[in-house]
Amino acid sequence: MRVRVAPASKGWTLDHPILSQAESVIAFSVTDTGIGIPPEKHRIIFEAFQQADAGTSRRYGGTGLGLAISRELAHLLGGEIRMNSSPGAGSTFTLYLPLEFMGAASAKTGAPPTRTFQPLAVPVRVEDVPDDRHEVLPDDRVLLVVEDDPHYAKVVLGLARQRGFKVLVAKNGAEGLRLARQYKPTAISLDVFLPDMLGWTVLNQLKHDAETRHIPVQILTVEAERQYGLERGAFSFMNKPLTTEGLEEALDRINAFAQPRVRKLLVIEDDPAQQMSITELLGHDDLQIVSADTGRDALEKMRRDRFDCVVLDLRLPDISGFELLSEVQRDARLRDTPIVVFTGRDLSESEVTELRRKAKSIVLKDVQSPERLLDETALFLHRVVTKLPEPKQRMIQKLHDSDEPLLGRKVLIVDDDIRNIFALNSLLERHRMSVISASNGREAIGLIEHEADLALVLMDIMMPEMDGYETIRQIREKPKFRMLPIIALTAKAMKGDREKCLEAGASDYVAKPVNSEQLLSLVRMWLHR
User: Fold this and answer.
1) What's this model's pTM, rounded to 2 decimal places?
2) Which of 19, 60, 129, 472 is most buried by its number of CB atoms within 10 A?
């Protein structure tokens, strides 16, 4: 590469409104010996998000923003950039600037300093299912069905209407989230496989919004993902393939749950002081709290009465918490009861694994345990957080804004630009996360295969060889990575790009340049459970 700075000849600048009037013009030339640019690409190369090879998986990286930004800066300084290039012979870019500033070139010509691009969206025809959205009254029981299969949606709609529901139908996740926030439905039926995003993304966003987290969500998925959904606040789940009888039972279950009533919580704790402390922490007029001081007493009460959630201490005087959980799992009537393990005991790795299989959540008694216990039980009880006393609302909000979900968690950054890796690495390590990185898609897939404790992936989209879309697709093809949170990062912040990321299997999306607080908020949300 060669850099040259010299006075410019007048012949190059006569057709420019400012440079033609300047007494002296300086030319800054940069010549490379690269692959060059074909003539048909010369006109577009300075446009935003354009490159000679414009694919997201091109051989060389970059976003196609550098030359567009450079052109605008040149205009603001009263100059311009010109290019001379041909394939195989390299390129020369020359910046012409007046020796003394005379105003911006765009101001002299009347041309706008920047351009806005609005690419045409290609309409995809999806059959509409007429629903009740224009007939919903304030006291109606409303079921939101998030489902892209019109046949299934019509079946659910008919069965739900027979049970007194007004029904809303959303064909994709984005519409489902919009309708949930607008109508605050009584309950939601959610398919995991949606055309624009995974149902897990919808569930996660619903459960991290104080306005919607109390709404019971019934997930349509496969048995292998049952525990994952229940841990994240799903009310229940339905197996594929579905039968009419199965749908009717599921709707009856959610109909019964949605009836206005005081929720019931069982606290299994043999220490009276701890019982009192938990009751004081969780109590409100929307909740009835029952206590049991032995495991046998707890099992008897659970079989005699229906509880919406259970708080369990592992140290009991008769049987251990592990034995109690095994008994619960053997009883089909109790198996889906949300159980939050609240313990001060040091747990081994094998014990944590066992608890994850049998309980919905583990809260260790530490400095933030009251906030976490309040938050976890509120989630599984489907409490309306905005109706809790103000101090308890603040406790939950403080927890969601804290760094606790990030501490020690491992995140993979996938980006071909070392500067981006360095910036993201610095940001996340300041919040005490463990960071590893990959410079391309294939390397990322290899790391994901071998890093057993990986919690989250930040995936750049515009990468050489294999772009982020294809990398995400290949990751999602493996069932064990279906639920790994993947946040896409891309500078192509144009209409439709978010949808493309989600269609490829990304959990969420952030546009570059990355806003640190926005990114941290998303990371906290996805790692909170």
Assistant:
1) 0.61
2) 472
